[in-house]
Amino acid sequence: MADQRPTALPRPVGQPLPDSLHEAVERVGTADIMVGIPSFRNAATIGHVARAAQAGLVQYFPDLRPLLVNADAGSPDGTQRVVLETEPPDYIERILLVRPRNKLQRISLTYPEVDGVGGKGAALRTIFRIADALGVQALVVVDSDLRSIVPEWVELLAGPILKGGFDYVAPLYSRYKWDGTITNTVTYPVTRSLYGLRIRQPIGGDFGVSGDLVRHYLAQDDWTPDVSKFGIDIWMTTSAIAGGFAVCQTRLGAKVHDPKDPGADLGPMFSQVVGTLLRLTQEHTSAWLGVQGSHDVPVYGFERFADPPPLAIDVVRLLDELVRGRATVGDAWARALAPSTMQQLDQVLQEATLELDAMSRADAPRALEDATFGFPDELWAHIVSDVLIAAKRDLLPIDRLVAALVPLYFGRVAGFVIETRDQTTQQAESVVERQARAFEQAKPRLVRHWEEQP
Ligand SMILES: Nc1nc2c(ncn2[C@@H]2O[C@H](COP(=O)(O)OP(=O)(O)O)[C@@H](O)[C@H]2O)c(=O)[nH]1
Ligand SMILES: [Mg+2]
To answer: Contact at 8 Å (CB) between 129 and 109?
Structure first.
C-alpha cells in the first residue's frame, strides 16, 4: 500500500533525469506497475490503447499502484492530448465495477532525444528511466497503433513477472501470414538458431519487463542511433537473453495494427533492426557460439484462435527491388557472400528477372496465381550467415551490409508470398518453421566460418 513504502526515490541508474522527467517522477512519487506507450502521430488509435491499458491496470492489479506513461515524439496531430483527455480512471471503475485501492496516474510527455536521435527506442529509454526512478516491479510496453489490444493484455504481459518470476515476456500472436515479414524472415530464425530459444516474436513491440531487467537495460553501455529507432525491440530481446534473464512468451490472440507493405514501408525499419542484430551478434558471441539446436520457451495464457485481417503485398515491386539490387549493391554482394552462395543467388536472380518480365507485361501480365518464382530456404539462411560473418570480419561497414541485404530480403518475401498465396495462416506458419530449421542446419557452417581466420 502507498503509505507503507519509503518516500525517498530509488537512485536512477545512469545520468540524472532531465528536469521535465524529474518533475513528472516527483509528481507520481512511486508506482508498482506501469504501462508505457511510445507514440508518433497516433491520435487516431492511441485512445483505444490507453483505455485498454488503464482498464487492464485497475481490473487485474487493483492492489498495486498503477501508472500509465505515454512518451511521444512531439506529434503535431494531438496524440498527447488524446491520451490525457481519454476517459478518466473513474470511468473505467464505473464500467468495470472495480474499486482499486490506488488511483491510476497518467503522464504524457515529449521524450528527449538520445544523443540527438529520436524514435521509438528513444521513447522507450525515457519509459525505462521513469520505471527505474519509481522502482516499478513490472513494466508493460505496448504499441500505440494497436486495434486488437484488450485490458487482459496487461495481465498477460505483467502476470508472468509478478506471479511467475519471469523477467521478460515476449508476445505470441496470430498475425496475418504476410504481416511481420522482418520477424519471419530474419529476427525469429536468427534468434532461434543463435541462442537456441524459439521466441516467435522477438520484435513484436508488446512486451513485459521486470524491474531488474529495466535496471540491466539502463546499465548497458551499447546504445546506438539504431537502438533509438526501431532497433530497440531486438535490442531488448537479445539483451534479456544474453544477460541470462528468464524469458517466456504470452498468448495475446490477434495482432491487428496499422498495416505496412514491405516494399513500400519497411526498408528503413529493416536497416535499423538488422543493423542492430549484426552488432549484437558480435557483442554477445559467447552467449551463442556454443549453442546447438533450439528448444521451446515457456508459454503463458490460454490458447485462443483469431483470424487477423489480410493485408496486401506488392510482389512485382519486391521482385523489381531484388533485380535492381544487382546494379545498386551487387559489388557488396560480391564482397560479402561466399562464392557458393553467390552462385545460387545468380540463379535466383535470373528466375526473378523472368518472373518480373512476365508479371509486368503491359498486354497480358502473369497473375500471382501463375507465378513460379521461389527463393530457397537454405540459400536465404546462407545469405544471412554470410552477412553476419562479413560484419564480424569488417569486410564492409554494417550500414553497407544491411543496405546490400535489403533487396535480398524483398526477394525472399516475394518467394514467401508466392509460395503461401493459397495457404491458410497456419499452413504459412509451417513454412516459417521449415525456414527456421534451415537456419539451425546452417549454424555449424556459421560457427566454422566465425572461428576461422579470414
Ligand atoms: N515516440 C516515438 N514512437 C514511435 C516513433 N516511431 C514509431 N513509434 C512508435 O512505435 C510503435 C511501433 O511503430 P509501428 O510503426 O507501428 O511499427 P511496427 O508495427 O513494428 O511495424 C508505435 O507505437 C509507434 O507510435 C518515434 O519516432 N517516436
Ligand atoms: Mg504497428
So the answer is: no
Q: In which element (H, E) is residue 51 found? A: helix 46-60
The CATH code of the domain that includes 176 is 3.90.550.10
What Cα–Cα distance (Å) separates residue 262 from each residue in 179, 181, 224, 230, 317?
9, 7, 24, 15, 10
42 CA: nearest ligand 1 atom: 25
What would the pLDDT profile of 223-279 be if each residue is shown by its tens digit? 999 999 999 999 999 999 999 999 999 999 999 998 888 777 788 999 999 999 999
The verdict on 252 and 324 lying in the same domain is: no
Q: Is the CB of 205 under 6 A from ligand 1?
A: yes
Same domain, 289 and 431: no
CA-proximal residue: ligand 1, atom 18 (nearest): 205
pTM of this structure:
0.95
Q: List Cα–Cα distances, 103 to 31, 89, 100, in angstroms.
A: 10, 8, 7
Handedness of CA 52, 159, 217, 214 (dihedral sign): positive
- Residue 443 falls within a domain, yes or no? yes
β-partners of residue 207 are: 141
Q: Which domain holds residue 222?
A: 2-300
Atom index in ligand 1 nearest the CA of residue 204 equals 20
